[in-house]
Amino acid sequence: MESNLCKVVIIFLVLGIVNIQVHSQETYVGFYSSTCPQAESIVKSTVTSHVNSDSSLAPGLLRLHFHDCFVQGCDASVLIAGLGTERTALPNLGLRGYEVIDDAKTKLENVCPGVVSCADILALAARDSVVMSGGLSWQVPTGRRDGRVSQALDVANLPGPSDSVDVQKRKFAEKGLNTQDLVTLVGGHTIGTVACQFFSKRLYNFTTNGASDASIDPSFVSQLQTLCPQNNGIGTVACQFFNKRLYNFTTNVSSDPSIDPSFLSQLQTLCPQNNGATNRVAFDTGSQNKFDNSYYANLRNGRGILQSDQALWNDASTKTLVQRYLGLRGLLGLTFNVEFGTSMVKMSNIEVKTGSNGEIRNICSAFN
Description:
The termini are far apart. By secondary structure, the protein is mainly alpha-helical. Helix 2 packs across helix 5 (118-132) and helix 12 (307-314) crosses helix 13 (316-324). A hairpin with a 2-residue loop joins strand 2 and strand 3. 42% of the residues lie in helices and 3% in strands. The protein has a domain at 23-192 and 283-357: Orthogonal Bundle (Peroxidase, domain 1), CATH 1.10.520. The strands form two sheets. The protein has a two-stranded antiparallel sheet with strand order 1-4.
């Protein structure tokens, strides 16, 4: 019996590796083998160095790639700095890992100037961050070029924390991804944390009677409410939506200088800096630093943090896919690990730009 299970696992791994190698005609594995053979190893060593210093950068890099691909395709448009860019949009304000990409780009430019795109660095760094967190590796097709457009308004394409399953399916389908890809890629929430502001509505007054979301495990609600105290509100707007103007507005200015100083002090009294909105909670309670399938067990137990996550268990069309990744049926996490790589390759080829459709940026945060 044990021998047969081992054979099944080996066959599964081989099939998984074959599937993971599937790519579009525009990108392919080993794109830099002759022009910059050290490209992947340089990105890997850079990611390893940064993640060893700060493990929270691993989920940050994975999320950075996801947010990039869902807006304008996988073209590094999320990396562009400046007013009105994707990077400044509300859903992207909490993204992390920019410094890792910049560091890798600097090293690559020293060895192979003008060759490796920032979009490819993002795709490689996402893979390496998963491996650093204990997940399986996969081969990343490369050959993307960097985009020349980055607009904050375009982030409406991103899946939202309160999206229903139908809305999530639509947004993924618009990018050429199916329901299995949806359930699999959202499993990236097995690592990392999320700010309370993105799910606090589930804890307080979820419905008009003031109750919390009934789909949350009752014992878990009290834990989350302790971590995320109820936010104050002024009139019709909650502090969380303008708190950044009051504290750490920019890296060198503590508050927004356009606010009247006397009014600023009033606002800071009403909205203390640590009012709970910016507190962070693990997506995958009990396993936030390990890339595994426990995220799906948390959904089954009513411990999904985001409304959009928990909906995957509550909706019959996605529940069966979640169940595939659990327990022995999911080969103790192996099924998820292999299929995650396959779906990541599909996602990494969303609307890729090649040839004259893009550029190789000199600096990832600015167009040439």
